[in-house]
Amino acid sequence: MSISNQGFVQGAETSAPDIRYGVSANSSGGNKWLASAPSQCVSYASSHDNATLYDQILGSTGLASYGVRESTAVKMNKLGGAIVYTSQGISFMLAGEEMCRSKDGDTNSFKSHPEVNMIKWQNVVDYADVVSYYKGLSNIRKHFTPLTCADNSYSDAYIFNGNMTDASKQIAFTIANDTPGEWSKMAVIYNSDSAPTEITLKDTSVTEWVVIANGVSAGVEKLDEVSGSTFTVPAYTALIAVDKISFDTAGHECVDEDPKDHKCDICRKILSQHTGGTATCISKAVCDTCGEEYDELDSTNHNLEKIPAKDATVTAAGNKEYWHCKDCGKYFADEKGTNEIKLEDTVISKFSPEIIEGKGQSITAGDKKELTFKSNAAFSDFVRAQLDGKTLDEKNYTVKEGSTVVTLKADYVATLSAGKHSIGIVSESGTASTTFTVNAKAEENANNDTKSPQTGDSSNMALWIALLFVSGAGVIGTTVYGKKKRAK
């Protein structure tokens, strides 16, 4: 067979009749040749020195270079494996087919270099999904007697869609099984078309199905359920389903030699539940048997740490008593962790600061004298200093620790006007404030006195002088008037 030739998995419709007859190991029907029993037929997709299945797919489709993973080619490889494992007869495969082995397109490698024939074990990793798929197909085959029966006991158990000789990209059939403890019926559909296809089974005796193999996974566990007899099969995919009743009630005796998975080794039914372990607010319980997490988180199981109450001071905030979970980070007002709160709800604000040194100071205007004021606020909380409600330029004062000490520089103090002033030391926790007095100079007071109105008796002296002057003038006037009168 040339590596350029295409078969059913690549979409060759004319190969469908050979596939149908091969499904029953060519032990029934009227194909080109006939085996007397399935035990005389070997079913395979690749073998010996010929091309590997994956090389045949790539060589005939040109989807990718040999040895390169290509998604459609991988689907075709899985489809080829599914056809072999769901056919009667002796199943056979070339070593490495389950990991998409490549011989770089060599179709007769019996005398090729060992490097061509060697199995590249890295493919087990690179094609892990294909390896798992082949394992699942093998498990299905072991659990369904008609596929491995050596004689013709099940030759009449097959019902195919359409005629055996029809050319098609789809093949569908059902297989009846009377073996106790196994699935009663299996439906198998191959779709080698490049598009999804809806297929309705000819055998409609079963209307509830459990899908155990699709284009992604294969095995004896449920992947999906389908009601009715119509299935949607993806491109280049084999779909395998079994009747739901027998899947759920298979009569075998369940065994679990490895209890760590809690499942029957045959049907994968769950035989035991997870037990043990303790769930917390951040982690699920861990099963004592299998070591896996299970169930849900326990939102009430916290790792609580008590935070004692602390009084607030001027330099530090305080807090109410509360509990903090060291795992999930939540805060609670009670030791049982039932009353969740926010951290800010526990905070007691710092006390407002006050001036503790330097209150009520007094200086004379023009004095070059430093004025120092001390706030009991923390030095680290200092924001600024202000005088009479206005922010002071930093060049006019110094600030230092202990707690917060602000000193007005002497040169600046000398410029202050006479009168009462207020100083504020602003901190993050508030403003500490007080007042001080700048007294006027003595000579200014004297000048002010001369301009002041007189008080007491002296304030009427001018009036007495004026009255005296008026009286004198009157006397003089009277005297002159008397002399003139006598002269007459």
Search tags:
Immunoglobulin-like; single chain; 10 helices; alpha+beta; 27 strands; 488 residues; 21% helix; TIM Barrel
Walk me through this protein's architecture.
The protein is of the alpha+beta class. Helix 2 crosses helix 3 and helix 3 runs parallel beside helix 6. It folds into three domains: about 250 residues, TIM Barrel; about 45 residues, no CATH class; about 90 residues, Immunoglobulins (Immunoglobulin-like). It has ten helices and 27 strands.
Task: Write the SSE topology.
Elements: H1 16-23, E1 42-43, H2 53-61, H3 71-85, E2 90-91, H4 114-117, H5 123-126, H6 128-142, E3 158-160, E4 170-176, E5 185-191, E6 197-200, E7 208-213, E8 224-227, E9 230-233, E10 237-243, H7 244-249, E11 285-286, E12 293-294, E13 304-307, E14 318-319, E15 322-325, E16 331-332, E17 340-341, E18 347-348, E19 355-357, E20 362-364, E21 371-375, E22 382-387, E23 390-391, E24 397-401, E25 404-408, H8 410-413, E26 419-427, E27 430-439, H9 442-450, H10 461-487
Parallel strand pairs: 1-2, 20-27
Antiparallel strand pairs: 3-4, 4-5, 5-10, 6-9, 7-8, 7-10, 11-12, 13-15, 14-18, 15-16, 16-17, 19-21, 21-25, 22-23, 22-26, 24-25, 26-27
